[in-house]
Amino acid sequence: MNIGCHLSAAEGFTPMAKQALDIGADTFQFFTRNPRGFKAKKIEEDDVKEFLQIIKDNNFAKILAHAPYTLNPCSADKRVRDTAKALFVDDLKRMEYIPGNLYNFHPGSHVGQGVQTGIKMIVGLLNEVLKKEQTTTVLLETMSGKGSEVGGRFEELQQIISGVELKDKIGVCLDTCHIYDGGYDIVNDLDGVLEQFDKIMGLDKLKAIHLNDTKNPFSSHKDRHEKIGEGFIGLEAIKRIINHPNLKDIPFLLETPNEIDGYAKEIALLKSFYRG
Ligand code: FE
Ligand code: FE
Ligand code: ZN
């Protein structure tokens, strides 16, 4: 299995890759810039070079860059949408320093304009920023449907995908906490949920999994992550997820409330339950 966790982008790519190795990971997620602001670090060529060597030597799976939470492509405020576009363009440019990886974003909140207006705006942004020559796959994250979030239903994500012209540049990141909170019962009917995913979007669109437990009961639309095995999803369901034949080639990324030691423990635990 390919597994890693969210790391704070301390001093560039190389320290993150080394930290991932330290905790037994072969992939990781990081924020492209301050998650609640917009500031990004300068890209250093030496850092990139060393990083690419480390991930090659250690057979890393694809790594996942996460856009800031403040990026909202379907805000009612044009300035917010323009900022989202500018950040997206800059992030995708930066991603090409580490070719062939994944860039995940939250589809956004339509803030009262309605889901359909939101979807149109998201599609509009994607068609402006995606380029034929890019090597990065952009992922829509499945959301919990909190507030006016777009992407709480598979059908909404599919509507976005079907509006995108460069379909081979777009995929989905499934967040287990979000979809359970969103009303997809991966505890009692994992097969049924995956069938729905396949029917609506196609399982070939699934490129990454955010593996999280949840602090809230089924269908609560809350989005609060819990440590593996300590929440309402629970360890048995998580074991079934990591061992599901349709999910085995997809990188698992932990976004559980942990410091680095806690992540190392969860990675070891999950590996011990993986039947290969
Ligand atoms: Fe996210
Ligand atoms: Fe997530
Ligand atoms: Zn979340």
From the spread of the alpha carbons, the general shape counts as: globular
Q: Name the helix and strand elements from N-terminus to C-terminus, one letter apiece.
A: EHEHEHEHEHEHHEEEHEH
Overall pLDDT metric = 96
Q: Strand portion, in percent?
A: 5-15%
Cα-based radius of gyration, to the nearest Å: 18 Å
For the largest sheet, list the strands in their spatial order: 1-2-3-4-5-6-7-10
Q: What small molecules does this complex bind?
A: fe (iii) ion, zinc ion
- Record field, number of beta strands: 10
Spans where pLDDT lies below 50 across 5 or more residues: none
Helix tally equals 9
* Structural class assignment: alpha/beta
Largest sheet: 8 strands, parallel, barrel
* Percent in helix: 25-40%
Overview of this protein structure:
This protein is α/β, with parallel strands linked by helices and 276 residues long. It has nine helices and ten strands. It has helices at residues 13-22, 45-57, 78-95, 115-129, 154-163, 176-181, 190-200, 234-242, 260-273; strands at 3-6, 27-31, 64-66, 102-105, 137-141, 170-175, 206-211, 213-214, 225-226, 252-254. The strands form two sheets. The chain has an eight-stranded parallel β-barrel. A two-stranded antiparallel sheet has the order 8-9. Strand 5 (137-141), helix 5 and strand 6 form a beta-alpha-beta unit. Helix 1 (13-22) runs parallel beside helix 2 (45-57) and helix 4 crosses helix 5 (154-163). The longest helix has 18 residues, at 78-95. It is globular. The termini are close together. 43% of the residues are buried. The mean pLDDT is 96. One fe (iii) ion binds at residues 141, 175, 210, 255.
